[in-house]
TrEMBL record:
Keyword entries, A-Z: Secreted
PROSITE patterns the record matches: CSPG, HEMOLYSIN_CALCIUM
GO molecular function: calcium ion binding
Official protein name in the record: Cadherin-like domain-containing protein
Matching Gene3D superfamilies: 2.60.40.2810, Serralysin-like metalloprotease, C-terminal
Record keyword Cell wall biogenesis/degradation present: no
Organism: Skermanella stibiiresistens SB22
One Gene Ontology CC term in the entry: extracellular region
Localization per Swiss-Prot or TrEMBL: Secreted
InterPro entries, alphabetized: CSPG_rpt, Hemolysin-typ_Ca-bd_CS, Hemolysn_Ca-bd, RTX_toxin/Mannuronan_C5-epim, Serralysin-like_metalloprot_C, VCBS_dom
Region of interest (Disordered), residue spans: 569-600
Length: 741
């Protein structure tokens, strides 16, 4: 039933002009209104413009008639409209006569222009043809399509398309529609159209020309603009002359297609409609809506169109030409069920989702039903590597198990109330995300009584990384020890120093206690696998408690007697004797005389010119500042002069290690004996970083000074850091006498 009277769309002009209004198009808008556009030709000044009028839901005009195009060059013709998801609309048109391109203008829900004109085609050419087609997409954007050919004389065109998002920004640029071919001359083109689908994608349909006969085809695209499946063939070539095709999306998925054709064999004209599922497969046979023969008074069926009504029925319209009445318009209402076969089981569709490790997923499984029945979903096999919540409407949520990556899946089926689908599988790919290494809470280092130093191994750090093997890890010293020290291959580490798992495996990382009565120490490290870094973790160090015995000796000074003692000097000249046991002696200031006695002792001279004697046992002897005399005695001793010039180091009997650091000044080794296993430890000098890792390299660098025969070996690292090895000529020294790494 008609609602109200006719509506005057345009501002009327006199019969004699000067304007001719034609090529009208109309589109419904979200919210109930509509907009009409047309081309307005002024035959006086030979100008072509696009005009439009916006209407409300009750048919009242909103504002006045307006000119759409701002470009006036060439002819503005053949408008088309799409209502957008936000209530606005977009109008596209053909801009050209001898040249051509395609323009568009967006409007908001109130009819206000948004931005300037959009150039849909790449550039103006004289080989684009026909009216553009445009459709709104589910995401608020739109897509337009048109015919294009590469040369003026060419007769094998193809379709180009251009997507835009909800903001009017292009998505991916102009692209060629897969499989599109056609035939047109300079002034005519075959029909083509683009239509949105309810899954967020779209479909481009066209009348092609292959093997000198017409065919009707289409190509589907997913919401990302990627072609889906092969070209759809509605009717193939060799059947007859086929007119344009119209597409209408169905709410439950899939679409309807209608077209007209002249069948060569019997001369009949037919208008047909057919149902297709979401995959582009036909559902049932094509239905002939209207058929006429050459004996009818009317002949030729063309310009078919199809629309889905609110009650679920469809209406198909077409035009005919009669020698008696001219062009007539016809329509036929059909039930959607008439296009479908008897009840068929739904088809559950396999699905696939991709998420990152530890990330949640929400989704919806899907199924198709050619009868359009309401479907219910049932879960069959649960996911095995995560928690799945599944609802009868097909929605689900999934959380993978912590740190799991790989493939998980679940199975389901769909039912329409009487028939069930086959089992389908939804596969979930969980991409790995790098996890930072973890230093365990049990990380610690225990030093027993008498231990001068300890290698920090993997067991002490207690590191784990689910992504990377230990060999790929690196470590950074965040905070150094409070009283002791960490060395890497003999070089003292400071905060920020980096070491590797290979260093740990080779035993190069060593902790040495300081001169203290504390029973604990600690340092902090971070670890990295090259992608992620752990937080700073505290490594606890447990030290054996010494017996704090500091008895005043008969003739002055202090002595510890038997046991593991700690003797602390004052800032004056002290005499400290450890006696038996593993003792710690700290001279502090003053010119001290420090005697470790039997046992594995740690003796620190501190400031002042000290005389230090380790005696029996494997002792660690550090002169500290000042001009010190250091005697190792029997055992495998470690001797270092410390800061200050002219320290004299006597290893004594046993395999001793003489350690020289940057800043130690001018020291000398008085009794180097290779026969007893003595070595010179130069690891703290950073020589390897300079490319020096052998005695030969030292000599090549000019750091070795020695007479040809007899005399001493002098190692000059700088003007202030010089180590003299007494009574040993450089020619007598071997590579094994030195530690560089």
């Amino acid at each position: 039933m008609a609602i109200g009277g006719e509506i005057d769309v345009n501002t009327p002009s006199p019969f004699w002009g000067p304007n001719i209004e034609n090529a009208t198009t109309v589109a419904a808008l979200k919210g109930g209104g509509f907009v009409v556009a047309w081309q307005s030709v002024n035959w006086v000044n030979n100008s072509y413009d696009i005009h439009a009028q916006h209407f409300g839901a009750t048919g009242e005009p909103l504002g006045t008639e307006f000119v759409v195009n701002s470009t006036t060059e060439q002819a503005q013709r053949l408008p088309t409209i799409a209502g957008l998801a936000d209530g606005g609309f977009v109008i596209a048109w053909y801009n050209g006569y001898l040249g051509a391109n395609f323009q568009a203008q967006r409007y908001d829900g109130d009819g206000n222009a948004i931005g300037g004109e959009l150039s849909l085609s790449v550039s103006r050419t004289n080989i684009d043809g026909g009216a553009p087609s445009i459709t709104a997409l589910e995401d608020g954007g739109f897509v337009s399509s048109w015919w294009h050919k590469d040369s003026f004389l060419g007769r094998t065109p193809y379709i180009l398309a251009h997507r835009y998002d909800a903001s009017g920004d292009e998505v991916g640029g102009v692209f060629r529609v897969e499989g599109s071919t056609g035939s047109f001359d300079r002034f005519s083109t075959p029909p083509q159209s683009v239509s949105s689908l309810t899954d967020g994608g779209f479909i481009v349909a066209w009348a092609g020309n292959e093997q000198n006969s017409d065919g009707l085809y289409a190509q589907r695209y997913d919401p990302s603009g990627k072609a889906v499946g092969d070209k759809i063939v509605f009717m193939d070539t060799g059947i007859g002359f086929q007119q344009g095709i119209s597409i209408e999306a169905l709410k439950g998925g899939g679409f309807l297609a209608s077209w007209s054709v002249l069948v060569f064999n019997d001369g009949a004209y037919e208008t047909l409609v057919r149902h297709y599922d979401t995959a582009g497969n036909p559902v049932g046979d094509a239905i002939i809506v209207k058929s006429s023969t050459s004996g009818d008074s009317s002949f030729g069926q063309f310009n078919t169109d199809i629309a889905l009504l609110a009650d679920g029925d469809i209406v198909v319209s077409w035009e005919t030409f009669s020698g008696e009445t001219g062009v007539d318009i016809h329509a036929q209402r059909l039930s959607l069920s008439s296009l479908q076969p008897s009840n068929s089981a739904p088809v559950a569709v396999d699905g696939h989702s991709v998420i990152a490790e530890d990330a949640p997923l929400t989704g919806h499984v899907s199924a198709t039903d050619v009868n359009g029945d309401k479907l219910a979903y049932a879960l069959l096999d649960e996911a095995r590597h995560g928690k799945l919540l599944f609802s009868a409407d097909g929605s689900f949520s999934y959380t993978p198990d912590k740190d799991f990556h790989g493939t998980d899946s679940f199975t389901f089926k769909a039912a329409d109330g009487s028939l069930e689908s086959a089992v389908a599988t939804h596969t979930i790919t969980i991409d790995p995300v790098n996890d930072a290494p973890v230093i365990g809470g049990s990380a610690k280092l225990d030093l027993a009584s008498g231990v001068l130093s300890a290698v920090v191994g993997r067991d002490a750090l207690s590191v784990s990384d689910i992504d990377s093997p230990a060999a790929e890890l690196t470590y950074t010293l965040a905070t150094g020890p409070g009283t002791g020290s960490l060395t890497l291959a003999g070089a003292t580490l400071k905060a920020g120093a980096v070491f590797t798992d290979a260093d740990i495996a080779a035993g190069r990382l060593v902790y040495t206690p300081g001169a203290t009565t504390n029973t604990s120490d600690a340092f902090e490290v971070t670890t990295s696998d090259g992608h992620a870094t752990s937080g700073a973790t505290r490594i606890a160090v447990s030290l054996a408690a010494p017996q704090v015995v500091q008895t005043e000796a008969k003739y002055g000074g202090y002595w510890g007697g038997s046991g593991s003692d700690f003797l602390q000097g004052k800032e004056t000249a002290d005499q400290l004797t450890g006696g038996d046991g593993d003792d710690v002696l700290n001279g502090n200031g003053g010119n001290d005389s420090l005697y470790g006695g039997a046992g594995n002792d740690r003796v620190h001279g501190g400031a002042g010119d000290d005389i230090i004697t380790g005696d029996d046992g494997d002792d660690f002897l550090d002169g500290g500042a000042g001009r010190d005399m250091i005697y190792g005695g029997a055992g495998r001793d470690i001797l270092t002069g410390g800061a200050g010039d002219a320290d004299a180091l006597f290893g004594g009997v046993g395999a001793d290690r003489f350690v020289f650091h940057l800043g130690d000044g001018k020291d000398r080794v008085e009794d180097f004996r290779r026969s007893e296993g003595d070595v010179i430890d130069l690891r703290d000098l950073g020589l390897v970083a300079k490319g020096i890792d052998s005695f030969a390299d030292l000599k090549a660098a000019g750091m070795v000074q020695s007479p040809q025969y007899g005399g001493d070996t002098v190692l000059k690292f700088s003007e202030t850091d010089i180590l003299t090895i007494k009574y040993v000529n450089a020619s007598q020294m071997a590579e094994s006498d030195y530690w560089f790494v």
